[in-house]
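[[Per-residue structure]]
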Amino acid sequence: MNKALLLIDIQKEYFENGALELVNPIAASENAKKLLEHFRKENGTIIHVQHISGEGAPIFVPGTKGVDIHENVKPLAGEKVITKQFPNSFRGTDLLEYLQSKKITHLVIAGMMTHMCIDAGTRAAVDFGFECTVIGDACATLNLQINGQEVKAADVHNAFLAALEFFYAKITTTEDYLLS
């Protein structure tokens, strides 16, 4: 099985002083860094996905520090960086073609936000025929609101991971993945 690491949107916008700070993004990025180091050591295929918004958007504005990939997972020369404008990493990008050119069949996915880009990207990947493993503790999200009620980030995170595990992906931790 040919695997690739897909790091989605681990960008400064989601960290302290960013426009859309998540809950515990540092911990998630540190786990993503462990995965990244593992794939680098194994000379594995690594893809960084970077969200850059279109004109007039309030977040991920081109030319701002918020669009920069976080230091914990900064791409090295030669590592693929795909820019996107939608939650689904495949939409409007060359991600599918790139993965097919590398004969990738399995994606190991980590990043931001669990309920949005991780969910959309994982579901799309499976629809394109990829097997997916999502590293839950290398992902982060935020508190959400619905009908005047706050839904805590941990509940959002766990609900989306549980939904993905039902059909779309194996869900595991960084430690368990690295030990397997």
